[in-house]
Amino acid sequence: MWGIIATWRMAHDGVLAAKELLEQEGTCGDAVETSIKCVEDYPFYKSVGYGGLPNERGIVEMDAAFMDGDTFKIGAVAGIVDIANPISVARKLSNEKFNSFRVGQGATEYAMLAGFERKNMLTPRAKKIWKKRVAEVAKTNLSPYDGHDTVGVVSLDQHTGMAAGTSSSGLFMKKQGRVGDSPLSGSGFYVDSQIGGATATGLGEDLMKGCLAYEIVRLMGEGVTPQKACDQAVYSFTDLLKERYGKAGAFSLVAMNKAGEWGVATNVEFTFTVATEKEQPAIYLANPGVDQTTIIEPITKEWLDAYEKRIKAPV
Ligand code: GLY
Questions:
Q1: Is 181 annotated as a binding residue?
Q2: pLDDT tens digits, one per residue of 18-58
Q3: Atom of ligand 1 nearest to the CA of 170
Q4: Taking 80 as the threshold, does the pLDDT of residue 299 lie above it?
Q5: Best of 181, 209, 212, 254 to mutate for ligand 1, by most ligand atoms within 8 A of CB?
Q6: What CATH number was assigned to the domain covering residues 3-71+125-312?
Q7: Strands (E), the chain
Q8: Per-domain boundaries in the chain
Q9: What pTM did the predictor assign?
Q10: Of 82, 138, 153, 206, whose Cβ has the fewest other Cβ atoms within 10 Å?
Q11: Nearest to 61 by CA among 202, 175, 140
């Protein structure tokens, strides 16, 4: 059995590329890295890699992580700059026994010394959006923050291996050095090949309060289906946050178990993409339903057309 699930419509082309690998007995690690690199390389996705929106100083600081579900090896980077593919750096770091989570200059220097491709990640389009926002913020009292759509992937290969990965340029207009959930084990991702894996997108500051990726894997380990595990973790924690913290940011999680069954839960409209040995690759729309359930429906052509227009609209 093989399978792959990923957050957001933006991951679909990567999932298609990973499907080819997985069908030919490629590894889950290669599937995760390949699919995430596709997103990092595409200039019109505003929250990941090249084209990602910068921090308040106009610098694209990126976070990424990779986890191997057989060995629990984890590699992660936070606040890395001018490197084309943070996911590949995170994956390489996962082989280090020590110093496997690098931040800021240490992460960038590690990547440069290891020979990873250097690239100015601030596209002219992202720079324009940033300049516009800086001007707006100077004029109004509105919160400058939005846009933190991480690509998160969980993959299962035909050798029973599982892996997970994330990549994000984080919160648009974030303060220098701000790090979200994406590189944090248990919050942005978690995978155990003997159970399954989960990954998150959304407001990192709130996701890390609940360690939801770990919670979903823990529930799956108790025999709960991926869908029920996602529903239980996401909706209970959304309620708990509202009760104890006063509000809950937008977040969504996807999960897959070792049998290739998957689940999704979200407290906001959310798209995701999935392919398995039994299911053709497809993009779905998810919304919170009643009584801690999730409404999942196939994406429509209208939705996709509007999305395509939106991401390429003149700034
Ligand atoms: N989920 C990505 C972030 O908050 O940075």
A1: yes
A2: 999 999 999 999 999 999 999 999 999 999 999 999 999 99
A3: 5
A4: yes
A5: 181
A6: 3.60.20.30
A7: 3-7, 62-68, 74-80, 101-103, 151-156, 162-168, 189-192, 196-202, 251-257, 262-266, 270-276, 282-288, 294-298
A8: 3-71+125-312
A9: 0.97
A10: 138
A11: 175
